Amino acid sequence: MMPSRSNAAATPNSKVKYSKVSDTDEGYIDLQFKRSPPKIPYKAIALATVLFLIGTLLIVIGALLITGHIGTGGNERAIPVLIIGILVFLPGFYHLRIAYYASKGYRGYSYDDIPDFDD
């Protein structure tokens, strides 16, 4: 035995209006299949640019220290500067590359691959 339904929606004082769904649309609408435009993570791209520039600067300074154009301290100062420069340069370059390819529309690259800050 099926439970009886309340006729509260049919009363004239009800503020809720119901309409019957068409049987021909199968429950799908065109809007659900359209992709929204990508959200560009400007903060993350700015951070990647800063990391890229700082890493490049540290790598250049480390190379100049090794070759002796800056100071005469030797490798004990140059190697740590190079290592830190490489560690800062790599994530900046990686995320800038993804942002560039996503902006050009290359297949397989999107702004969703760049981690964004929670606003």
TrEMBL record:
GO cellular component, one term: late endosome
PANTHER family: C20ORF30 PROTEIN, TRANSMEMBRANE PROTEIN 230
General function of this protein: Involved in trafficking and recycling of synaptic vesicles.
InterPro entries, alphabetized: TMEM230, TMEM_230/134
Membrane topology, as annotated: Multi-pass membrane protein
GO biological process: synaptic vesicle transport
Bilayer-spanning residue ranges: 44-66, 78-96
Similarity comment: Belongs to the TMEM134/TMEM230 family.
The protein's name in its UniProt record: Transmembrane protein 230
Domain of life according to the entry: Eukaryota
Pfam families given in the database record: TMEM_230_134
Keywords: Cytoplasmic vesicle, Endosome, Golgi apparatus, Membrane, Synapse, Transmembrane, Transmembrane helix
Subcellular locations according to the entry: Cytoplasmic vesicle, Autophagosome; Cytoplasmic vesicle, Secretory vesicle, Synaptic vesicle; Early endosome; Golgi apparatus, trans-Golgi network
Signal peptide boundaries: none
